[in-house]
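Honest question from a wet-lab person: if I give you the sequences of every part of a complex, can you actually get the arrangement of the whole thing, not just the pieces? Trying it with mine:
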Amino acid sequence: MHSVNFEKIFLTVAILAPVGILAQTLEASLPPGFMICGDQIMDPAKGSKVRFWWGYHEMDPSRLFFVVAAKAKGYVGIGFNNREQMKGADMVLGWITSNGTVTFEDRFGSTDFASPILDKEQNVKLEVAKENATHTLFAWTRPAKTSDTSGQDWQINNEMIEVLWAYTDEDPIGAPAMHTERGHMKLNLVEKHPTLGKP
Ligand code: HEM
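Yes, you can. This is the full assembly:
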C-alpha cells in the first residue's frame, strides 16, 4: 500500500489512454494519508478511458476514498450494485463546466433506463475535482457504512460487487442524460482494507 501521488496516477491514465494526449496531463493532489488499496482500468475493451482507484484514510480507515479519472469532458459516474444494471445502484455523478462550476452528487438508480435520482441523504464528500482539455477527475470520501437507511446507499463489505461506470463527452444541459459509454466490472473494494478486509 502507498500514499497517493495523483500527478503520477494521472500521467499513467494519460499514457494508457489513446495517443496524442501525453502532453496534456492533469495534476491533482489530496491531503496526505490516503492509502490506495486498488486501481483498475474499467474499460479495457472500450479505449481504456476510465480509471478507478479505491482506498481509505490512514487516520480513519472507516473513511473510504475513491478516485475516478476519465478521458471525457462531460459527466463521470461510478455506481455500486449487486447487479450489472443501474436499478438499485448507489451512484455518484459529477461534472465540471468550462467555467469551472462543479457538480458532484450522491445518486440512486431507481430504474435501469433513466437518470439516477438524487439521494435524499448526501453521504459523499468531494475531495478533488479537476478537468483539463481532455480529462475529468473526481476524488471523494464516504464512510464504508453510511447513515442512510433508505436503501439508497450500498453498505460496503468484504465481497465482490458490480462497479458501474459511465461518462458523457459533453456536459449535461439541464438534467444529466444518456451516457456516451457505460459498463461494469466486478471488484472487491475492501479486500486489502486493514479491518474491513478481514474475514
Ligand atoms: C445520467 C443519466 C443516465 C441515463 C439517462 C441512463 C440511461 C440508460 C439506459 C437507457 C440504459 C440501457 C441502454 C444501454 O444499455 O445503454 C442504460 C444502461 C446502463 N447504464 Fe445508464 N443512464 C444514466 C446514467 C448512468 C450512470 C451514472 C451510470 C454509472 C454510474 C450508468 C450505468 C449504466 C450501465 C452499466 C448500463 C448497462 C447495463 C447493462 O449491462 O445492461 N448509467 N443507462
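Two things worth pointing out. The pocket of protoporphyrin IX containing FE is lined by residues 77-79, 84-86, 91, 93, 113-116, 164-166, 176-179, 182-184 (CB under 6 Å). Residues 71 and 89 are 23 Å apart (CA to CA).
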